[in-house]
Design goal:
Layout (H helix, E strand, L loop, with lengths): L2 H9 L5 E6 L2 H7 L2 H8 L8 H5 L2 E9 L5 E15 L14 E13 L3 E7 L3 H8 L11 H30 L11 H38 L5 H88 L4 E4 L8 E4 L4 H27 L2 H4 L3
Parallel strand pairs: 1-5
Antiparallel strand pairs: 2-3, 3-4, 4-5, 6-7
């Protein structure tokens, strides 16, 4: 039904029971028909406020009375918020925001004792619209009749979507990272944890909404004991239904918190698996380092064995030494150049400067920031 048709019906002859499906509150606010709609059905300003629209849920009500205090009408407004997982579209980014959608819907009811019931439904999902249009019996005997009827469908939608999130958590548990080559998708785990936190939040707020609704139901009948007997009788059954629905919501809330704990366990397990794998890799690297160390030790020992002889051989092979074998009656002769001192004059300072340069370089390297050491 369009807004124009709704105005026309309200101005002419409104039926005893009127249930209208309208767009989300945000869309109507943008169209700016608020003054006329609010005046026509006595909708409070808080219903249109961004605070109420952006909240996870709430319940409010007010009544109107004549000059002698007799009840003329009872109005209520409430809303719920549900997060639903959505199958990603083909070729969508792996972590795109298209993996879920929000159901933001609310209600406004206006009840006239035993005469009229007006219900405005804002942004209802198709399944909730079908649950209302499929009702075979409508009642104007109880101002809270519609609340218990529609909230039962809302609980069913909460349950359906919570099980859908549970299936995603279970799939994560069944496809844990391998201990041999762990590559957990931490972003996926984080995103799923974020969604379950939202589910817990919305269910917790739904419980608060139901608590407020149940309390207002009690206050309403305590203040209106003079209402007809059939209304009082109906109210007792309504109270039982509200209590039963409260228990169901608490059960769903506990299930959502259990999903949070399961995801927390999966996150801890993923970190532990990666840590154990890294530890095994570190042990392997340590064993390889020990093998390399043994090889280097062997090379060092061989160097210690052959280096002295090699050094002596290198010195005696220089031109400072001359060996003449025996020939033509002359004995063999071994001579040392009188310039042999030049070798020591050159080699000793060069050796000293080399050692000094190495010491200075080591000290400079230790003073460098760790992030710059690899560049040196």
């Amino acid at each position: 039904m369009s807004m124009r048709e709704l105005y026309k019906m309200a101005e002419e002859a409104m039926p005893s029971i009127l249930i209208v499906f309208l767009p989300e509150v945000a869309e109507i606010v943008n169209l700016r028909p608020l003054e006329k709609l609010s005046a026509l059905f006595k909708i409070p300003d808080v219903f249109w406020s961004s605070v109420a629209h952006d909240s996870s849920g709430y319940f409010g009500c007010q009544d109107t009375r004549d000059h002698v205090g007799e009840l003329q009408s009872f109005n209520s407004h409430f809303r719920f918020l549900i997060k639903e997982p959505v199958t990603p579209k083909p070729f969508a980014p792996e972590h795109s925001n298209a993996a879920y959608k929000w159901h933001k819907f609310g209600y406004f009811t206006s009840w006239t004792p035993l005469k009229k019931l007006v219900v405005l439904c804002f942004g209802l999902p198709e399944c909730l619209q079908k649950s209302i249009t499929g009702l075979e019996h409508f009642s104007v005997e109880d101002p809270f009749w519609f609340h218990t009827t529609t909230i039962q469908s809302v609980i069913t939608l909460y349950d359906k979507n919570l099980w859908a999130w549970r299936d995603l958590v279970r799939a994560l548990e069944l496809n844990r990272a391998s201990a041999d080559d762990p590559r957990p998708d931490y972003i996926k785990i984080h995103e799923l944890a974020r969604h379950t936190i939202h589910c817990t939040e919305t269910l917790g707020m739904a419980i608060e909404t139901m608590t407020s609704l149940t309390g207002e139901h009690q206050i309403f009948f305590d203040e209106n004991e003079s209402l007809p007997k059939e209304i009082i009788t109906k109210s007792k059954q309504t109270r039982r239904s509200l209590r039963s629905q409260m228990v169901l919501l608490k059960s769903l809330h506990l299930r959502s918190k259990a999903l949070e704990e399961r995801l927390r366990n999966e996150t801890t397990l993923a970190f532990n698996i990666v840590a154990q794998h890294d530890s095994r890799v570190a042990v392997g690297i340590n064993e390889a380092a020990k093998t390399d160390s043994a090889a280097m030790k062997t090379i060092s020992i061989l160097g210690l064995i052959f280096l002295p002889g090699t050094f002596i051989c290198a010195i005696f092979s220089t031109s400072f030494f001359n060996f003449s074998p025996a020939s033509d009656g002359k004995p063999q002769k071994w001579t040392v150049s009188d310039k042999f001192w030049i070798y020591w004059v050159v080699s000793i300072p060069v050796t000293f400067l080399t050692v000094l340069f190495w010491i200075l370089w080591q000290r400079l390297y230790e003073r460098l920031p760790f992030s710059h050491r690899r560049r040196v």
